[in-house]
Amino acid sequence: MAVSGIISAVIVGIVIGALGRLVVPGRQNIGILLTMLIGVVAALIGTAIAGALGVADTRGVDWIELIIQVVVAAVGVILVSGLAGRRRA
To answer: Has residue 66 been placed in a domain?
Structure first.
């Protein structure tokens, strides 16, 4: 993977992770780096799911793929914040 690909993945991860956190109601006790990591993983998983469904490559903006990625990120934020909350209690 080239440096530009890594930078793109980080930027997409930040955006997807932030959108995932916005979708989840309430306060999440996780940091920005963990949110970014969740976003990168969610972007990869969401792209794989969109590819399996046949909606990964469309003309224009891939809205369905983006929605899938944000939903996966929201689930990741819920899981990680739930695990972090249990560990502190």
So the answer is: yes
d(CA 68, CA 46): 5
Greatest alpha-carbon pair distance for the chain in Å reads 48
Q: Which residue shows structure tokens 């003309």?
A: 59
Residue 1: pLDDT above 80?
A: no
**pTM beyond 0.85, yes or no:** no
Distance CA 76, CA 73 (A): 5
Q: Has residue 3 been placed in a domain?
A: no
The SS3 of residue 65 is helix
Boundaries of domain holding 45 = 32-76
User: How much is the average pLDDT of 19-46?
Assistant: 89
Answer for the pair 73, 42: CB distance below 8 angstroms, yes or no: yes
Residue 14 within a domain: no
**Predicted pLDDT at 49:** 92
28: Cα separation from own chain's centroid: 15
